[in-house]
Amino acid sequence: MSLKSQRRLAAELLKIGEGRVWIDPEHMVNVEVAITREEIRKLIHEGIIKSLPLKGCACFARKEKERVRQGTGRKEGVC
After folding, report:
1. Which of 9, 66, 77, 79 is geometrically suited to a Cys-Cys bond with 59, CB 3.0 to 4.6 A?
2. Is residue 35 part of a domain?
3. What are the beta bridge partners of residue 22?
4. Euclidean distance between CA atoms 45 and 79, whole angstroms
5. Is 64 left (phi over 0), alpha (psi -120 to 50) or beta?
6. What is the pLDDT of residues 19-62, one digit of tens each?
7. CA dist 64 to 25, 53, 73, 75, Å?
8. In a domain, 47, yes or no
9. What single DSSP character describes residue 22?
10. Residue 53 falls within a domain, yes or no?
């Protein structure tokens, strides 16, 4: 029951990473059968395959603050 190729196709179509692809566990049989891009597009349209939101990281906020405070001769903040 490997959905590796379906997850890869969905990630390409949604323009996200494979880790952010969410597949509805109740419709695994439908996803297993889908082997073409068109079938994956249909599952995305139906909401069986979705993209997960980005995970936040305090590192991004800290780096943004460091960029604002940077001046001549100042090294970039560590993260």
Report:
1. 79
2. yes
3. 50
4. 39
5. alpha
6. 999 999 999 999 999 999 999 999 999 999 999 987 766 666 67
7. 38, 20, 18, 14
8. yes
9. E
10. yes
Cα–Cα distance for residue pair 4/19, rounded to 1 Å: 11
CATH code for the domain in which residue 44 is found: 1.10.1650.10
Q: Are 11 and 17 in contact (CB under 8 A)?
A: yes
**Angle, alpha carbons 79-53-39 (nearest 5°):** 130
- Give dist(CA 60, CA 77) in Å, integer: 11
Q: Is residue 77 one of the residues assigned to a domain?
A: no
Global pTM value:
0.68
The range of the structural domain enclosing residue 42 comes to: 4-69
Query: How many domains is the chain built from?
Result: 1
